[in-house]
Specification:
disordered C terminus; 5-stranded antiparallel sheet; alpha+beta; 591 residues; 46% helix
């Protein structure tokens, strides 16, 4: 059947896969070509916008000529009194601050004027590396730019601002047109965030990048600010013409577009991953995949139908044999053919029926045997308690204690009803605690108050179940050995959850304790098989045997004792709720 299915799928799936792949490849290539033509046009427009912005900044030095006071200061000779120099500096610095820093040009980081060995400045943030002793540029009156504005990059000057923001420095000669003299030079530092608005509009995808380099490949602007000022390592490998091209990196194919500014000779680049370009093809791709899946499913269905008559009988037999292997013998192979498969099916059904009957027969025998053993263990516990109870009632009758007799008879009747209901192997723990409370009450009457007990519940015991008569033999031992002492016998019983799957009932007394050798022998007997070597007169071992037979050897009694200080017995039981009783005990609790 598998071979038939594989053959049919190969004849249908492979052609459809090739067709889908071809269509998707062609569509992706078409998108790449369209983007490759569209992006350079946007870059050309971005270059024009950047040139316009640069031209606007180049006009900013002209604002100085609007202030006759500033021009007069720049005309003055630097050899003046200190007070006059400070006054002039304050006047020019204030004008620079009003006009440039606070004049609505948010991208300007600072403005500096070098004139006749004097420095005037106004900045947004502290700076360093630019002063009268700076040699990074030929500042002062000797600067001759022939009326042009020079653009200086950060790597070409020692000027630095606090926080190292990337910037471009515009340098222009100041000339006194009336006297035809050089007044000095003005330097305007502009943050490259000036280009953010223009260039980020091109960044339509999160994984696309835009950057500007000078003619040597040094990065002037980048959408990743950390790369500003560094060299583009691949600059020399890029084509020198405008347009788009694709990288050959197999792990990360990129579509890179470039455009060169005719005025500044700067090159603007835009890169985007080929995989990001194909995001728009998701609908087409998903549609193709859905069609492909539908065709595959139809192919599988058809191939199954074609192979059904050949392989179905053997497949059924294999499935049923797997179920039998897991222990399910309630199976039947309905094949009525007279061929070899039909003969095999009849033999298989006959064999399974015979095995199932043998297993059920042995299982019923084993259950009856265990039921007999459990009832025998329970009957070994009850007579000892009955004798003590009747003896106590007899003493009360002789002393004519009517109220005591009535109360004890009532308790005894309740305990007898609880004891005689043997069909309930598991009962709510609350009933077991009520039974042991009745038992301790009777014993307290018998020993005239020399018994003191306390029962604490840290959980709702009415919702959890345990075997019957697991506490009485333990409490009997506590009373038996505790009463050998002269002081009051105190018994504490508490019930709590140890884990989500295990609960514990702790019985603690203040008796004489158990000698080390006796305790060791007792613990050793508890570790033996639940039905081997049990002494019928030893109540603790009987209780442990019942719990171990019902729930497994991981549950039962845990005994600890110190001489003189007393004994503690912890009954470990699985957490059993009402709906789980049928699976464990074979029947529901009676009303």
């Amino acid at each position: 059947m598998t071979k038939l299915m594989i053959t049919y799928i190969i004849l249908t799936v492979i052609p459809i896969s090739l067709l889908g792949y071809t269509l998707y490849t062609q569509y992706t290539k078409s998108i790449e070509e369209q983007v490759g033509e569209y992006i350079p046009k946007l870059l050309e427009q971005a270059n024009q916008n950047i040139d316009n912005q640069l031209n606007e900044i180049k006009q900013l030095p002209d604002f100085l000529y609007n202030s006759s006071q500033v021009i007069e200061v720049l005309r003055k000779d630097s050899y003046q009194s200190k007070s006059n120099l400070l006054k002039d500096k304050f006047s020019v610095d204030s004008y620079l601050s009003r006009t440039y820093i606070n004049g609505g040009y948010s991208e300007i980081l600072g403005v500096f004027i070098h004139s006749k060995n004097r420095m005037f400045s106004s900045t947004k943030v502290p700076y360093r590396g630019l002063g009268l002793d700076s040699n990074s540029l030929p500042y002062g009156q000797n600067l001759d730019l022939k009326g042009q504005t020079n653009i200086t990059l950060p790597n070409q000057t020692s000027l630095q601002f606090e926080g190292n923001p990337p910037f471009i420095l515009f340098v222009r000669q100041l000339r006194d047109y009336e006297n035809q003299e050089n007044l000095g030079a003005i330097l305007i530092a502009v943050d490259i965030s000036l280009f953010d608005k223009t260039l980020n509009s091109l960044k339509q995808e999160e994984n696309s990048n835009i950057w500007i380099t000078d003619e040597q490949g040094r990065i002037i602007f980048h959408t990743d600010p950390e790369l500003v000022g560094s060299f583009d390592e691949k600059f020399d490998n890029y084509p020198k013409i405008n347009g788009s091209f694709r990288t050959t990196n197999l792990n990360n194919n990129q579509l890179i577009s470039t455009e060169t500014s005719p005025s500044t000779k700067w090159r603007i680049f835009h890169s985007i991953g080929i995989s990001d370009l194909t995001k728009e093809t998701t609908a087409t791709r998903n549609g193709t995949i859905i069609v492909f899946i539908i065709v595959v499913i139809l192919s599988v269905i058809i191939s199954i139908i074609l192979a059904w008559n050949v392989s179905n009988p053997l497949k059924k037999l294999t499935k049923l044999m797997n179920q039998v292997e897991k222990g399910n013998f309630n199976v039947d192979l309905p094949i009525n053919s007279n061929d070899e498969v039909g003969t095999l099916a009849k033999s298989f059904n006959s064999m399974i029926q015979e095995i199932d009957q043998l297993i059920k027969k042995n299982y019923r025998i084993e259950l009856r045997q265990k039921d007999a053993e459990l009832y025998a263990l329970q009957s070994q516990i009850n007579p000892h308690f009955m004798y003590n109870t009747l003896e106590t009632i007899g003493y009360a009758v002789e002393d004519e204690e009517k109220d005591t007799v009535v109360k004890m008879v009532t308790i005894l009747g309740r305990m007898l009803r609880y004891s005689l209901n043997n069909k309930d192997k598991l009962v709510p723990i609350s009933k077991e605690l009520k039974h042991i409370k009745d038992y301790l009450t009777v014993q307290k009457f018998r020993f005239e108050g020399r018994i003191d007990f306390d029962i604490q519940e840290e959980m709702d015991s009415n919702n959890y179940y345990s075997p019957k008569f697991i506490l009485q033999p333990i409490v009997e031992n506590s009373i038996k050995y505790g009463m050998e002492q002269l002081h009051t016998c105190k018994i504490e019983i508490s019930i709590y959850k140890e884990t989500e799957n295990k609960l514990c009932i702790r019985i603690k007394d203040n008796g004489p304790g158990i000698e080390k050798d006796t305790l060791a022998a007792l613990k050793e007997s508890l570790t033996k098989d639940a039905m081997v070597g049990r002494d019928s007169s030893f109540g603790l071992i009987n209780v442990h045997a019942r719990i171990a037979m019902t729930f497994g050897e991981s549950f039962g009694l845990d005994i600890s004792s110190e001489e003189i200080k007393g004994t503690e017995v912890i009954v470990k039981l699985p957490v059993i709720k009402g709906h789980e009783i049928t699976n464990i005990s074979g029947g529901e609790e009676s009303a």
